[in-house]
Batch of 2 targets.
Target 1
Amino acid sequence: MTLPIAAQINSVMAALILLTAFGLLIQRRILGLLHIFAWQGFFLCVSTAIVGYVTGVHHLFISSLLTLTFKVILLPYILYTLMRKLEIRREIESLVNIPGTMLIGIALVIFSYHLTSPITQLSTLVTRSTLAVALATVMLGLLMMVTRSHAVTQIIGFLAMENGLFFAATSATYGMPMVVELGVALDLLIAAFIFGIFFFHISTTFDTLDVAQMAKLKEED
Amino acid sequence: MIDFSSFITEVIQLLFLLLAAPAFAGWVKTVKCRMQGRTYAGILQPYRDLAKLFAKEVILAENASWIFRFTPYIVFGVTVLIGGIIPLISIDLPLADTADVIALVMLFAIIRFFTALAGMDIGTAFGGMGSSREMTIASLAEPAMLMAVFTVSLGANSTSLTHVVQVMAHGQFVLRPSLAFALLAFIMVHLTETGRVPVDNPATHLELTMIHEAMILEYSGRHLALIEWAGMMKLFIYSSLGIAIFCPWGIAATDDPAAMLAGGVYLLCKLAVGGVILVLIETGLAKVRLFRLTEYLGGAFLLATLGMLSFFILE
């Protein structure tokens, strides 16, 4: 109740990141997923900038800018271009049992809260309360990779997991060292290109991006 | 001892509810018609409809039992009782202590229970279908509603509505994500419970998609008038409940006439804005398929639960 105003805004951002993580989990349209993913990156960027402003750790501004360029603009743009090339823009994924997935998601949030509460009690950082949200975002990204069968959505789940890790680093230790963050950002960019190449190969081999098709080892008739 | 002046407050609030509810329903209809480029009958049309229905003769089905005749009065009475419990224009209500938020949800459940029974009582296919749909939806909407109000009462440390409103109106301003989640969930449940567009279409009669209308199809005359009036009051009550919980500024804390007048004016202004928002939501969304409703209401439950969790995690 007595949090300073910056920490309150950070809490709101954390709540929005959690909301977008759930949005990713239950969104059917792939284009919608991209939008939600971009928003998640945007909230992450705002949250990082606020933490940087409050704590005076200035390299957080640079990571915030990196987040903005990579996760809000560049990665969604690359994925969008890929989807246009592969002509899967309007594709709608058939999802089974959305309420069930939501309930599992809620259970994961409670689990991460339980897991991080000892750390939260020991920590003295302004951002300690958002650690549970960060862990929950990682778990929800993982859940998304498990429940979805489309290659593009699995990649978005993977990137959402990365968002969660980044957020965890910010809230647990005020961000990783600059070199590590630069490395991760470049890795992500390279990963996006490699995913693109894989998408082309998957879709030319199987005529679909549904990875469930890959379980078939021989052709059926 | 019941304080006489707060008793007067109660009576004034009930009169306000009874008189203003049709006007609010008319306002929503008018704005909706305007938004969709249709001609409109003005915000007084619901009063004319009610007057017409009260003047008409009641036609009962041959096999209607006492439940069918009894239901309109129960529905109307319980709705008025709810109107006496929730703080509309003033916090200082003698009836407010009789029920907290949980009891309030249960009072809404009584209305639903009797409406569903009456729908099945006549034995027509439409009535039974409407009742079964209503109960299905209710079983999903009620947990979400309870979660949303629990989230709010966690912040106020009380399930008493007047206490919650008091804390919200006079506590210090804190940015609270849990409340935003609870508000979203409340709006989704509001649309469900009052039978608005993503769930039920209030403008249709005799279509296979209808839910509320299907249950009350056999009613006529003053029975129908009472149910319609109660429906309008339900819309009014849900809207002003949301306003009282999430945006209570301006509500009267005492039974001072000037404060109450100001509270009433504030409420009417907020309701006017709320009606426009309601219409915007209704115009922007399409009706959800019945089998997709589990996802819609599951989403409401998710939001309310997230609100509760973020209260523990973030605040």
Target 2
Amino acid sequence: MLAYLQNIAVLFCINAMLALTLNFIMGYAGIFSLAHAIFFGVGAYATAYIAMYFTDSLLICMSASILISALLSMALALPALRVRGEYFVAASLGLQVIGVTIFSEWKSVTGGLGGMIGIPRPKLFGYVFNDDGMFLLLAFVMLLIVIGIIALLVRGSFGRSLMAIRDSESAAQSYGKHVNAVKTISVAVSAGLAGVAGSLYAFYISFINVESFMLETSILLMAMVIIGGTGTLFGPVVGAALLMSLPAALTYLPFLPPSELGTIQQIIYGLAMVLLMMFRPGGLVGGRSREKSA
Amino acid sequence: MTSAATQNEILLQIRNLNKNFGGLKAIQDVSMDLPAGVITTLVGPNGAGKTTLFNLITGHLIPTSGTVHWLGKPLKGIEPWKIARMGIARTFQDLRLFSHMTVEENIMTVMERSSWLWQGGRTEAEKRVSEILEETQLAYKRNERAVDLAYAERKFLSLARIMASQAKLWLLDEPASGLDPRSFERFVTLLRNYAARGITICIIEHNLDIVIKLSDRVAFLDQGKLLAQGSSQDILKDPHLAAIYFGDRS
């Protein structure tokens, strides 16, 4: 039972990090990306590859994941950020499709559809995180660090620039904001921190394949952000907690047939989204209203 | 009405400016100067090309031909954010406030020249924000979101942002439209004060009260052409221009 709860807690930390980093661009910069799972995947594959073939050092693997995810996001974001709104959503969908294809076809690096098996647990200053309890502590500390970084960014001038761009790109430009630079940096920060989640995921699960980084994951992360509260600091954490605990909670309801739990779960997700958008469009943590015109 | 000290310096020089949208000639061979410390009002019927002219100055549109010089430097090809940092700021007819940011954040973000985490002069910036909030009588709304403000307050917030921008030239697109009489008087006083401090202001306005009360110069645009420029009395007295303005072209 304890192992089961620990497992949920670690996965919650990883998903909360992903939701936080997606919210950083979605909620604060107005960049609706359907490709977040790709940067999660890049982080995971980078760590898996380095850990399996070079070193299991947490610092090296995680740093490489951050760097590769951030750099790749910049290379991909530069052309994609030229388009706005729904056009960026479409462009990000394209990135997601390209990413999944590369993950499943670049066999020499990603292991293809079979993925990568036997990723060792990370080592930090000589300590190997073989104990799941200690790994949970590591994941929790990393979650706090990610929250801290995002809080620092959104509550300062960078965050104000992001929100200004989100609310009116042309007005932000007219007051001297270098819109493309700010957006590119925000995408890089978001992807880099998603790389942290990817790194932890690879280390924790010890097996990764493309299934974990599909479009469904990107949509689930978006749902976490929307349900929790777009543009709020703790909304995505609440959204992640809710969506991560729901499947577990459903298993404790004896009147539900176990074979139908997956379907019921999907219906609840969908219903929750519809009801929230109707009655609390700002999400659970956000306000009741989110008027857009001013 | 304006500061005499800097009046002779030409801040912005527009020469033979043209802008075509396909077959439509939105701006046709417009040449005009904006001297320092002078309030110029652009008048003309809807579709005359007034906002297009603003967009060409601020880099939101690229001219088909002709030049715009700011302090002697050509602006063609320079991105809007760089032009803003050179000292030209604007407001928008539809305001384009940062809706989900507070009044204070709207002003503060305009004051921040960069987006770096660590900004110098934080105390002075906060002091200036407070001054602007007092001047625009928005201090009591400091922590409210722009989207939650009343219409007149939004208009003043739009003005507060440009006051915070430290720009030398303000381009105001219909800033007084829809203001009640009391707010209108406050607005006129504010603009007068800033013009007296040496700010150069160019206003697009349909409200003839503004034209009469504030303008040093009036430029009359129609169908993309600059038909006349001069003092407000001269322009408003011209029966031909009045006929165009009120829609009688016969």
